[in-house]
């Protein structure tokens, strides 16, 4: 059970920092609260007493979004469901709707925030690989001597290990900014014990853009989660795919390449099989959605799409 | 404790009242406003029994801090029947038989309401997806999906409103007719009160201190600090039991609370009743128990070795129950066989996972009758056991069965009702206990894990000549239903086959694991899993079709069972025929996969599509276009 004496809901960043300063060492930040409740239960942290909970989800700055064809910026308290049902976000971040639809369930996605998913830094955090593929940066705010300052870090450098990040005491993750990739084909592949409410054993975000001929990649991005301590961009696979034409044989070669990266604590053999299949499925789906039907044989689509 | 003031609109009414900062919206709705349609099934966002609308959007209220309700408009399942009439969707749930135990149903109704509000034309796949956050343990979901589709079609005018009415029964005959459940309206509306929803004036809340050790002597229990806490009204241990302590479905080997010794992790050691559950929980941490650890047994076969630690003094060999069956002469049967196959089969413990965690409410009525309300599957037996335990005549003990939010055998054991009764007697106040999901899993019975060694001798033609079956089950720390489970496993385990020479031994063994108990099919599952798997293996070795080998050996009308019961009629052959037809079985020995099997092509009849999500993309095309 989670106990607290005070539940504060600051309306501005300044109010939030003021609360953090006056309750130093006695508070915890919450946004969606969907991680903290299951954590404060028997078998995990048990009964937890946190004197002050500071709910930052209502701060307007953490709910903003600003989107153009080059850059997308959204507040850290953006509920996951918006990546699924907000057409602007869906257009700029083509694999995020696919990621969101697999994330927990429709109801929890209204509570859970993208910022919470990032700071939780789970190796299986579903929201992270797609944003890594979008070359996302996180924006961290802090206040000293009454002045708010902000710093930025690439998302893949921000997360340093399971449950660990570069977040410093007194900081708030305020926003995420990444590349807009409209027109890209996106996919998100995930496997777990069931469809809803499940932690990924493996997840893979794929983004592709085809050239004018439709037979070569102009850009391809793959980011994988669940197979090691932190999510990874599959840079070598991307390089290989960009170096030649898009055909079934080369997709199969590409699918072999990241198999050796699996270093999870459990079910390695199974995960290797999944990684191979997911690279194929991710690429086939993303290529299909990028308008590349012509290069895919019906058998390939039937097997993987 | 500090409080915060919540102003919100709840089910159309403005409220302004104090809440505790640590409360979740679910606690506030249930405990403070008595809106108990939203249930707590897991407290971890997994099950969906607590779904409510906040500003028209569905949330799981066990994951919402009450502070977030500030200024919001909240609708619970009770809002759907505000006019006094069930909604179209609720009527459809009633019509389709979508509610069974009913515990998940208010949440399910809310999720379904949200689904067809968001997309009034959602197809079955999209409905499934949108209901993905709500778990049901009874229905298998199909009737729920039927109900949502029915409601959708009525709402869209594709079906007349009369489609929601009960089907007429021909000539008053109910068998074969679609009859609505009498209790469905109370379930689909959230009006039905389960034990955890019930309150009484002046009611206390019980919390239980549980053993962290699998096997240990209790050297001392000091409850003084807990008893001294403000708000604590009573603490009980084994020492408060006035009568003959011990319960169980067959052997009464389990004390109400650990008596001198704990035998599994999660066993109740002491209980606290306080003005609220938070105080009671905090008081638990003030109880000091000194344990002396003992060697523990986690493996049934190890527990059978001579010299193994003894878990119960009355059973020095750690055997809870051994059931033998002997028929014919197995040595001769094996000698006459052309093929003898021996294999070992094991099954794991399984949790019932009913959506309603255990809960109960006890009080002593004005006539001094100790009364326990709980979703017990066995109230009469509980009543007799409790009378002895609390040393009262049977007419001073009453059990009331509250609606059972799923049982499946898991609520047959009197695992907590005794503590409630003792505490009500001690405090002279009503006392309620509601398990957390974790408590339910750690402390209540599981399906018996088993290991079966099966040896079968057959003729070349596939006729069974002899079977020897030995099953060892891990019964865990206490007897519960183990004896009955061993009996059923022995009687039914060799299956509905004519076996002239048979030797069966089933053993239920004490270990320091979570106790095993009743679970649907009650022992038959474990041994029949072995027997049926074995027949497939034998069919393969003999080059026979698996259905054929079963037909050759099947009991027919007039057959005698393994325990010499004469059967007038046996429907087994009809069952086999139906299964063969329904499975589109391709005849032949299971030595290779035939070329006509539909599951060999990536897409086709008989192939279940790979697990994927995204029906809503296909459905509205909006996002697909945006991509």
What would CATH call the class of the largest domain in chain B? Alpha Beta
CATH topology of the largest domain in chain A: Uridine Diphospho-n-acetylenolpyruvylglucosamine Reductase, domain 3
Radius of gyration of chain A: 20 Å
The main sheet of chain A orders its strands as 6-7-12-8-9
Layout of helices and strands:
The complex is a heterodimer of chains A (305) and B (627).
Chain A: E1 2-3, E2 6-8, H1 13-22, E3 27-30, H2 36-39, E4 48-49, E5 52-55, E6 65-67, E7 71-75, H3 82-85, H4 87-92, H5 96-102, H6 108-111, H7 114-120, H8 128-133, E8 137-144, E9 147-154, H9 155-158, E10 159-161, E11 164-165, E12 172-179, E13 185-191, E14 202-210, E15 217-225, E16 232-233, H10 235-242, H11 248-256, H12 268-289, H13 298-304
Parallel strand pairs in A: 1-4, 2-5, 3-5
Antiparallel strand pairs in A: 6-7, 7-12, 8-9, 8-12, 10-11, 13-14, 14-15, 15-16
Helix pairs in contact in A: 10-11, 11-12, 12-13
Chain B: E1 4-10, E2 13-19, H1 25-32, E3 51-54, E4 57-60, E5 73-75, H2 88-96, H3 105-118, H4 124-130, H5 142-155, H6 184-188, E6 204-210, E7 216-222, H7 224-227, E8 232-236, E9 261-262, E10 268-274, H8 277-284, E11 288-293, H9 300-304, E12 319-327, H10 330-335, E13 339-347, E14 359-364, E15 370-374, H11 379-389, E16 397-401, H12 417-427, E17 431-434, H13 437-443, E18 450-458, E19 464-476, H14 482-492, E20 501-510, H15 524-542, H16 546-553, H17 572-582, H18 615-620, H19 622-626
Helix pairs in contact in B: 2-5, 14-15, 15-16
